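Hi C.,

You asked whether I'd gotten around to modeling the 299-residue construct. I have! Everything is below, sequence then structure, no commentary in between.
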Amino acid sequence: MSVLDVRDLRMRYGSTDVLTGVTFQAHRGEVLALLGPNGAGKTTTIEILEGFRKRSAGEVSVLGVDPARGDEAWRAGLGIVLQSWRDHGRWRVRELLAHLATYYVPYRTPWPADELMERVGLTEHAGKRVSRLSGGQRRRLDVAVGIVGRPDLLFLDEPTVGFDPEARRDFHDLVHQLVDFEDTTILLTTHDLDEAEKLADRILVLAGGRVIADGSADALSRRMNTAAEVRWSRGGERFVHASTDSTAFVRQLFAQYGEEIADLEVRRASLEDTYMALVRGVESGAADRAVREFEEVAR
């Protein structure tokens, strides 16, 4: 059974179509990154999946249930980490997590507060009031609140905003632990393309009201045929060449110069390069063509 199964999802506000046929699936233990420019419909899609907004049309199944009809037991299987929240400032960290865990007890076994604080790096702040946490510490608490019920499906909205590099690395380790040991499915929305490339098994690009790309970062780069950068040196000089077929170019290079070639390096297009090429294609009116190309590859 798919953890997420979305087919031809549509959403209209008045006379404006925000989602015009979003389709994708996600399986247990998979990390998906949902990318797209502002106004692409990411938030609307997520709110529909979480059961907070009713769709205009289409079929949606989340943990085997239509989110429009989800009950408390169903909601207990979801974890949500929002961009920010400012509640519970007077609570102490451990007390808050222990209290929130009690709401999950009728439906599942939540994380013990002490173990959860250790997982997210808040043990030394257990007795501190939430209002006195630093920005990075507060974000760690946001994550702890989202996973206290050991969710089967976790929604992460810009999860590492405000994190320093060490905290970001620790968070990435936590995501991998949730997937590897808890078999959690994660849907991540972020503007940090480097983070998406590091964490996600699959990238979904939402633009023009529909998913125009679905695949790993490497697969999307190959499908877009974005130019790779080939660097090498010969006779003490450095050279750089952009090529959409780097393998053929390197073969030609060695056929022509042989052992004179040194320090060869091939840099494939980054996720940022691929993403920008996709979005620009949509903005230039090539959305339908982009969708057809990816559907053809998928078949």
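If it helps when you're writing up: Residues 1-77+151-163+182-217+289-299 form a domain with the Rossmann fold fold (CATH 3.40.50.300).

Thanks,
B.
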